[in-house]
Fold these 2 entries.
Entry 1:
Amino acid sequence: MGWRDGYIAVDWGTTNRRAYAVDRQGAVGREIRDGHGIMNVPAGGFEEAVAELRRQLGDQPMLLAGMIGSNRGWMEAPYVPCPADADAIAENILWIEPGRLGIVPGVSLAADREADVMRGEEVQAIGALRWLPPDTLICHPGTHSKWIVMRAGRIDHFRTLMTGELFALLKAHSILAPQLRDVPAPDASFDAGVAAGLAGEAPQAALFGVRARHLLGKGDANGASFASGLLIGADIRAGLSLGGNGPIGLVGRSDLRALYAAGLARAGRETIEIAGADAFLAGIGLLTERL
Amino acid sequence: MGWRDGYIAVDWGTTNRRAYAVDRQGAVGREIRDGHGIMNVPAGGFEEAVAELRRQLGDQPMLLAGMIGSNRGWMEAPYVPCPADADAIAENILWIEPGRLGIVPGVSLAADREADVMRGEEVQAIGALRWLPPDTLICHPGTHSKWIVMRAGRIDHFRTLMTGELFALLKAHSILAPQLRDVPAPDASFDAGVAAGLAGEAPQAALFGVRARHLLGKGDANGASFASGLLIGADIRAGLSLGGNGPIGLVGRSDLRALYAAGLARAGRETIEIAGADAFLAGIGLLTERL
């Protein structure tokens, strides 16, 4: 049974896992979303985890992408250097069972001090081109947001920002935590934060205002919105500096897309939104066509 | 016994406390440095803590400054609004025992969205003027660094940055933690970080490079130095935007002064360094002259 007869695509992250059974028409049948990210699989447990997925989704060939191929995952799949396209990524799949079970490599950028890596977003980036022109700037928000410059359908270069992780650290551990309890929303506080971030203000300079305004009885309606807006505004400013003036391909989770779309609108930029799962499935589809 | 006969000055912070017995010549006699910051004093325990200080340092009048006057301290001493000088601060001391035991108020800034507060640094700022011209930009590095614009000897306005706290969060809880184990030093990695921060790069954009370079075998000699330099460079950029072109009064702990002095030199600025304890004692001295 080859890839044309259907396959299983797994987006295997640090904390979460999504597995899709794809049929011979390319349609998704059963789908599993669970918390069996690489950190939640016991040492030596990946073989059994894959067998279990096959029992549930069908005994088919399987591609795994994301942190599963990192040095903290199952086996380390060496990075493919930029510029990278679907051909280069498919050629460098790390085969665990030849032609039956492979790990998609990440993509790296290595130039002087500019060094960067991605694992998982490369599949979504090539897949997103189904809905985007071959020369596009893609924004992929997340714990580590990625801004990816696509040129002629290839991942030309990219940049990672610790935007989501910083927000999570502030929310969980900082002196601002009591003011960051709400869920950020694209409201007026968010807009004020975005404006400050887009203006080039280092977030650390405006963040303390969340606490100071609270202490002075002038608190934000939603402090989390302001802080999120500030970090996202700074993220967008850095991302847009990678160039281009067309619509931004905004790929990822719907809640984060809503925030980034609001921020990008504030920056005067159009967006084409693509659900992360759709981009992922399209990307894995492109890879299987090459197998 | 009045203030002219000697007094006790206490810099009472969140986690640490420093108490100094000052004699009638203004010289410091015994000094206590301990971990009895406000978070480490049991509820209702401040009266006894003060009595204990008097047993050790002498039964003298006493001024307490810092977070002891916050809503998490002993009693809340309302902020004095900017612009504020030694007169305004002395007039607004919160007396617990009239004329014998007082809490120095913090200083606030409240203008539109610009809101800020300080507690403790105001004493060091007015005290630092013993060594600085009356119109000076003061940099006070710390968990929450403060840049303070002094005009005609008054605290005119100021800005707080969460620089030290962000670094601590990254070191303790982030994905970069394994690369941030060393103590930051003003080395080549630090200098590269400062250059990126001064250039206006949002720290979240360059921070991930610490991890990416490590994964690609091009790691910084000292990742902590790079990350610290990046945050301090961004801090200095924001601080210098408050204006002025004279030497910067650099007030605080010697280890942080060394890092900021290196960063400010990179930005082409001269510094006049003043130990935080010296500035604090000079500031308390100015207040007692008004009592």
Entry 2:
Amino acid sequence: MRRHNLAAVIGHVHRSGPTSRAELTQTLGLNRSTIGALVDELSARGLVAERSDRARRTPGRPSYLVTVRTDTVAVLAVVLGVDTVTVATVAPGGEILAEDHVALTTDEDRSFDRVLTTIARSCKKLAVALPHGTMVTGMGVAVPGIVRRQDGLVHFAPNLGWRDVPLGARLRTRMRSRMGLDVPVACRNDAGLGALAEHARGIGAGVANLVYLHAEVGVGGGIVVDGALLEGAAGYGGEVGHMRVNPDGAPCRCGSRGCWETEVGEDALVALAGRRPGGRAVVEEVLRAVVAGEPSATRAVNTVARWLGIGVANLINCFNPDMVVLGGLFADVMEHAGPSVIAQMRTGLVTPAHLDVALVTPTLGRHSVLLGAAEVALEPVLSDPACLPVQDIASLR
Amino acid sequence: MRRHNLAAVIGHVHRSGPTSRAELTQTLGLNRSTIGALVDELSARGLVAERSDRARRTPGRPSYLVTVRTDTVAVLAVVLGVDTVTVATVAPGGEILAEDHVALTTDEDRSFDRVLTTIARSCKKLAVALPHGTMVTGMGVAVPGIVRRQDGLVHFAPNLGWRDVPLGARLRTRMRSRMGLDVPVACRNDAGLGALAEHARGIGAGVANLVYLHAEVGVGGGIVVDGALLEGAAGYGGEVGHMRVNPDGAPCRCGSRGCWETEVGEDALVALAGRRPGGRAVVEEVLRAVVAGEPSATRAVNTVARWLGIGVANLINCFNPDMVVLGGLFADVMEHAGPSVIAQMRTGLVTPAHLDVALVTPTLGRHSVLLGAAEVALEPVLSDPACLPVQDIASLR
């Protein structure tokens, strides 16, 4: 019970920012003296501090705000991209303390063993730079592929060329041998983590049911059902990019054909607009051509918009979300052909009542996946603040 | 806390059947004296009884089993079908006490007001026949359509010809005025209730993540995510029949085209086999023709099998279930063309790890939806046994 209440207080301050004891009392439905004792315990464990609320300048005695400390606990958040590995140290409250980026330019750079070395090196660099006394309590890794929740086995990450590699286990060993850091390593699909972050502290804060979609070459999906990320039996849930929407469509990297991402991904837009694939730069060229009124580019974005509307309607019928978050290329398509998306979506909804859904773009920008990785890494400490593992980063110096 | 524990004990006995105090102690992780006190309280409230376990014939002192009583509390469970209204009285434990069927033969029979009258009349008949002293505590209604959870507004029930009718509110009023019974009326989509029942006491008992599919003319879906039925923002979740899988496909009753149910429903099978629609009888004729080796019937069932595999793969990619339950026509297709379904499904799965999924048929047979309706009606009593609403059916006699 006490553990549950400690978690409720630190969880609230972690997600919502500095909060007065009075607000905590009201929001969490606990009495004043209980909140006082919980804040005192979190404070003694170094997780929160109280500071006076000068901004409010209320008359009478000063008001204090409970706020997370960012100098006692931190986690390592890793985002594996196709071109870049990003590593960051993140404190409770979602504050990014420091970031490191390493470019992956060759296939050799993307090989499993090389990526492990790259991650471990960046982690050590950032951990050593943490304020003296900061404990690193966990690690979260975002993977552009299909990951087994239990142990971080990556079944398939097409853009890295990985199949069945034991990422979680090998990272943990590597961190232990390289920097004497033995902490849980949570590996998850990147889009699922984007959904988690937008739900924790972005556009989806407080929304119980949301579908988060992020498109680049592939389409990633993360789905929140009744407040929790849908993971399914083994953590493979949310793979909406391979929803087959066009059985006569183009072959997909996954071995099937007519998957949603073959119709709505960057490659589809670029090819429909008569360009050769060339990453984000060519996508932006196509979008500029749309603005300039080039007919083939306009047709291309409208075709992609149609398929986007079809897929979004399918997902709304399945999940009945309060909100659909459209990121990456999908945000661009909404900007340039939003009415086509909505018209197509409307014909596919089984009830007009579904039109209550909010179609929005993510607000955490390029940090959503990184903050999601931090969220899963922080989870053990936030759910049981009284059981912090004890380590001493100072020994690495 | 006590309320939570009372609910845990009655919930376990309700789902798992007669259980000894020792098993309750072990399963629920509570100590012996706590279990004793909880059983005594449930017993005093008339919800459980203890009987000696003669079947076990263990030596030494007799063992007693805690079992639900079926003579103190009952709910009304209603299934609205296209041709029939079924009403039953159901006791905790899922025991069907009595059933009443009323055929709907004309469109007039299916009109909203007539159906209300039919339900109320059957309910009164069954309630009066309950053992003296049995309290009716709730009502659950299964609807072949899209229902708002909050108040039982039916947005769309194509086979009944209903649009935006306030079923929940009107039924409650009707029951109150007709038989002085003022109880909560929970209206839900029928396939969702089928999923709930198979999860509570059928093939899916103890399975955390399952997709339940039932096909007749339409395809209904009910999805259990992490132990709970996916309802979404307003209760419209699980409408997988209108997942658009073939954008160039046939028009659907919903106004769209190429919805999954236009490719895999009874009408598709019958038309592909060169027959005219004629309900279940013609479907069975086609299935007999498959067994007899008629080429057009064989091609028809294989085509439907292919589309079934495509849709099931989409759902497995989305939900990563432990189990997919295939009922109605889908059970027939598995029986007659299972390998085609599985071959097609396999090409659509994003990871071979998804092949761990169990493809099964429902075990509660024609009662699954009825028992699901009873489940939602019983929920208030089972989640808070100490707060039984007090009514006296005896006054109706």
